[in-house]
Amino acid sequence: MSAQDDLPKLLGDCVHCGFCLPTCPTYVLWGEEMDSPRGRIHLMQQHAEGAPLNAPMVQHFDQCLGCMACVTACPSGVQYDRLIETTRAEVEREHPRSLKERAIREAIFRLFPYRRRLRALRGPLRAYQKSGLDRLVRRSGVLERISPSVAAMERLAPPLGKAPRLPEFVAARGKRRATVGMLTGCVQGEFFPGVNAATARVLALEGCDVVIPGNQGCCGALSLHSGREDEARAFARRTVETFESADVIVVNSAGCGSAMKEYRALLADDPAWAARAEALSAKTRDLAEFLVELGPRAERRPLPVTLAYHDACHLSHAQGVRAQPRALLGGIPELTVMEIAEPDLCCGSAGTYNLLQPEAASALGDRKAVNVDATGAELLVAANPGCSMQIATALQRRGAHIAVAHTAQVLDASLRGLGRDALVGRTS
Amino acid sequence: MEPLLKALGPRLDALLGPDRVITDPVRLRTYECDGLTNHRSTPGIVVLPDTAEEIAAIVRACADAGVPYVARGSGTGLSGGALPRADGVLIVTSRMRRILEIDVPGQRAVVEPGVINLDVTRAVRPYGYYFAPDPSSQQICSVGGNVAENSGGAHCLKYGFTAHHVLACEVVTPDGELVELAADGPGYDLLGVFVGAEGTLGITTKITVRLTRVPETVQTLLAAFDSIEAGGTAVSAIIGAGMVPAAIEMMDALSIEAAEAAVRCEYPPGAGAVLIVELDGPDAEVAAQFAEVERLCRDAGAFEIRIAADDAERALIWTGRKSAFAAVGRISPAYIVQDGVIPRTALPKVLARIDALSAESGVRVANVFHAGDGNLHPLVLFDDAEPGAAERAEEVSGAILDLCIEHGGSITGEHGVGVDKSRYMPRMFTDTDLDTMQMVRCGFDPAGLCNPGKVFPTPRLCGEVPGVRKGPHPYEGKADIF
Amino acid sequence: MRPLEALAKVCDDVRAGEPEEGVLGVQPALVAAPSSVAEAAEVMRVAAEQGLSVVPRGAETRLDWGTPPRGCDLLVDTHRLDRLVEHASGDLVATAEAGLPLETLAGLLAEKGQRLSLDVPLPGSTVGGTIASGAAGPLRTLFGTPRNLVIGLTVVRADGKIARSGGKVVKNVAGYDLGRLFSGSYGTLGLIVEATFRLHPVPAAAAWVTRRVSGPEEAHEAVQAVLHSPTAPSALEYIGPGTVAALLEGVPDGVAARAGQLVKLLGGDARVTEEAPDGWGLYPDGTTLIDVTAPPPSLRELIGLVDGLQHDVAMTWSGSGHGQIGLPSGMAAEEVAATLGALRDVLGRHKGGAVVRYAPQDVRSEIDPWGPVPALSLMRRVKDQFDPDHRLSPGRFVGGI
Predict the structure, then answer these.
(1) Which of A262, B30, B149, C311 is surrounded by the most beta carbons within 10 Å?
(2) What does the alpha-carbon distance between residue B459 and residue B450 come to, in Å, rounded to a whole number?
(3) CATH at A38
(4) Complex ipTM, two decimals?
């Protein structure tokens, strides 16, 4: 059954207790009921009761980051994730947007899901001039919004050396324990090639044959989380086909992993695909989730680094993966994991949010950066490329000197005995 | 919009700027109720002040215009105390959430009214302190709301209520004046009556709270019993032994079922009742008393006792209890959270009567209660899609309050009277009692513009009110109830 | 009908007042001692009809507090309202009439192993007088003052009607809490006739840890050490000059262990005793008694000021941030006024204040006993509602209320 059909029931689950309020980034920023999950559900209810989908309503739906912290906080089990996705799809279908808004949205969705177009963006100076981008992307202003993040990333990425081009197959080191498919992701693949390389190495070092299909495309996460359901379904079908033969699919990007686990709901109404989507969702694992299930085998070498671990919303709230990355990091000798204050609060990245709602996103990024800074850690670890870019940019704005890495890169450095300089450089 | 309000709008815009004055109908409706959803009324205007001075100016503007106003914090109240008025202004303090001062040597902190209860504790915890009032909604309810409602919580058995932990409040009086009310100053203890007045005497803009030293040890025990009666016996034994635990909480089978569905708290299967007993204080005190509590629970027939080994296990024990209200949403489409108090010794009798009520009416009642102080929270379940079910539930819920009064108790232990229970006040108090209470009201707010229609079933006429009144009397409007 | 006759019709103990019954020198014309709440209400009704000014009296222990009444046509004496109405020991709650002496109440409660956790600094003082004056002793640090322990209050209003607020259960937020409003109201809002208290079990064991301190700094440090320790004392006192003492209550093993902890923490000559140290729970000697609100961070300066005075001045201070200073008879009125001013300066910086409870007449005329009273106009308006004719203890309270 689709969410549209049981919308009244989904809405009825909310008892208006307000436990979601303090976990909602926009409520934390503005303190307004309409920009809290409880308020947005109220707006959805108004709409369900016949109020037209008007501009104020859409504004508050658009301002939702989709971080799902409210889902974790809700004692009544309200499925806000389904509610907001259904609502967003409806907004996209029914609500006429302004020309400027349309241009930005179109540009984003013509850019991000396509790796070749993203590739044109790499390198801070190339961003404005690359002819590989279509005119809409260049003229929409999206480049201006994204380039500071890209630039910050380029500066803050760990000095692990040049990322090798990933082959389609990486053989297990030692006795093989599993064969896994690996999703490389669009943004991860282009902006963080080092993360993918580290992921493949760690999997191999832990005894996995890693299959990395060269023809894989976008998983559809950005589209799904923005209400572009048809587009998301198309991406999902393609991803299902690509990975159908794998026993397990390891994903190192939180947003992608959570989207793939949602395929079962996304394609539930499509008889030809429902079962295949269900199967794929069931096989999808976040990297940390998978490694903990597998159990450690490779030797962990000491890494005398103090790091702060950031919970990506699509990992902690959407997938419930909180303990596993901490367990993996905690298992590295001499490594100290610091907790960041307000861990449940989104950093403001939230897929395309920092492009569509730049002011709110940057306020949240600043707040997160203050909390990260307060830990005194020398390295920030996150498991989602969007979060890394967002927090890196905010840290940069504060002038904070802290390196940024993915869990996979920390493990890789430990497994390969690279030492702390590989992660934090020689600046500290 | 009413003409009086319409005239007020531009003045509020000028005070706050249009961004913090909400007049769009769709947005206004999101404020139509607080945590109690069966009373709804869309406010005429919502304002989001950032400072005490702004609140004072808003109140003055309302007073000049003769427009009623209601203050609201996080909107989690369970008696409709922050129910807005269609003909009035809703003043929301949720943006005023700065912790202004932490004075560790003086064991106090100064906070704005929108500060979330738990955030006070989070801020002072590094110094070894916490803010003792801990209502179940502490992760979201505001300190200003705690002041209005005199909030308690599971631990008020030992530590008392908000009134005991507030040393001073800066208050905007219904005149629009900013005054400081202190617990220990010269003159009347106006603070004492302001706390718990449910926002009818003014709006607090700055609160000095007492900080409590984090106890050296906290020991938490979960005891499972076959029946509520057996659990009740254990409670009596513990109190009778001269102990004052930090908390004694009980849940019955139905509420356990709900909590289990919501948060997987893993309470012992098959329990007819679970008792949570928490002792805190110096190591040596707690150690001696804890052994005694355990023995008394076993003597009363506990078939399983779990002792939290660490903070995580303690949190798990409390998770079930703290989410119980909202969790009932998992086992029933709709429910009423009741809040009544009885002398603790009347527990077995009253619970038996509630059982009988439930059986007679066919309305399911889940019981969650602060057993140590006789504060019952029966959750009356119903299906709002079924015709007449809400009325039957309302009837059972009201009958439970009658039971409380009959046994010398109270119609509310912590949720407040609000709009929801004002009609029960005459069952607990005489007309003279209510009239006397309202003398305070008349002293503070002779025009009756500050959160009118709450607490008291009928307003007291305050005599000659200085100044000219415009428009209808604020009590004339009534909230829609469905 | 003359007042005496009218009152005699409703109360069997009415007589003319004696000169020695004066309230700060104001002799009552009549004295009535009702024997029940109903009778008290009748007395108040007649007083209202006759337009009599009324001052309530308990055991006279604090009748010399505050300022003299502008008039006293009728003194309502509560000594015959001395019943313990109910002791619900299973619920740790007791209801007593206003005239019951606290020590008598304590004896009755102790039979069931319970107590009202209020000290009795002045022997003989009654339930009603203690509430009306908001009085408390060292236990205020843990248990607070009457406002924290009164859970239900019955008063007779100026018009003779009986009004109740609160109830018989500890946890109760139905209606306004008039118990707190009447605490410390000096008989200006109504006649307190009955109160319900929350009780506590009498602890199985108690011990005091006492340490000599020399000077403000040492006192401050000792007090801070105890306040921030996890030993959870029931009371923490500075008894001037030079003693810091903490009361520990609980189970025997617990008290012993905590006392040991405190001795170690306080160092110096700290020792454990089973008896309270000298001066514990008593008002300091002197003819002028000043109540100070003095949060812990102000203690250093407070002691510095008191120790620096030309006279031997006694003081006590409780960890809750409240103290008393007794000024000797030798201090001239101007000196008292100057000291009071200095206290208000120092304490004002800490959001505290100083209120003169009692003082010789010549001193009273030189000072403002209350100091700055924030929200005074609000207080007047509340007073006007409860007592529109200003007949109840007129002039006894702040701002001439």
Answers:
(1) B149
(2) 12
(3) 1.10.1060.10
(4) 0.97
